[in-house]
Structure prediction request, 342 residues.
Amino acid sequence: MNRRAEQKHVAVIGAGSWGTALANQLAERGHPVTLWARDERLARRLESDRANAPYLPGVALQPHVTATSNVDEAARGVDTFISALPSHAVRTVWRLMAPLLPKAATLVSATKGIEVGSLLTMSQVLRDRLPADKSVGVAVLSGPSFAHEVSNKAPTAVVAAAHDRRLAEAVQQMFSTSAFRVYTSTDVVGVELGGALKNVMALAAGVCDGLNLGANTRAALITRSLAEMTQLGVAMGARAQTFAGLSGLGDLVLTCTGQRSRNHSVGVQLGQGKKLPAILSPMRMVVEGVTTACSVVALAARHGVEMPIAEKVNALLQGHISPHEAVMELMTRTLKHEEPMP
Prediction:
């Protein structure tokens, strides 16, 4: 690893738990960082308290991190931007930010999701917002990475993906430390789909745990979820091997089993019989799987891919079936031959 990589002034757009963790990660690497928060009160609190108690409690902001809610201030003197927004906010915020980017900027998407309606991945949404007269390099950062554990320097491995390998390697150098190992990939579609689809599958895993169905069920659910993710990915032009890596299997296992997984936690409560509005109302942070489920089902239909787990999760979220009915319908589907991964 090149420990003397060029220092860059970086703007992290989105001051939730993940944006804050990435801002600290970059600052620890020696990069001056501007952390943009949509909420002016949160930005002021970040500056005064030097911590993000609402989203990342117990973690101090690195000295090189400066917080602001002003888009012009966030973009001033910056040529590298990290988008760490909730998926539903990406298009709206980047409508404001995109005109402020310099002509040869680097933009890294660190959001995991599929846009409702357009069915675009997050990097595709970003490209859709970028002015045609600017040559912006777009990359993706994904993989099994809870923000608190990254902040506490638990050894973590993720993937930086870009169509241009040199751009992926530049992002790799920018983020990598002895506790945060970054691999590279040129399979942008596969890396993004892995990060988005696993949130939906984590809801299903949580439902199984909420029903106390046991380890056999969880193992089967994770395995068949990976099969569904891979099949959709390949149909959309991704490489099957990508889903066996960090952004696929790695993130799927973490989100389906980790105690910090919001998607798994919501699934557990659904399995216990709680209603979705009552589960979500006290939660400050976004549960991406809830937003993404309908988009995944729509993508599967568009590409002619059968995704029964995702379909049952979506039906459950829409209130069309109960957790017990979802499990029974999955278990009594037409018996099939297990095909190898494509």
The two ends are 34 Å apart (CA to CA). The domain at 10-186 is CATH 3.40.50.720 (Rossmann fold). The mean pLDDT is 95. The first helix runs from residue 17 to 28.
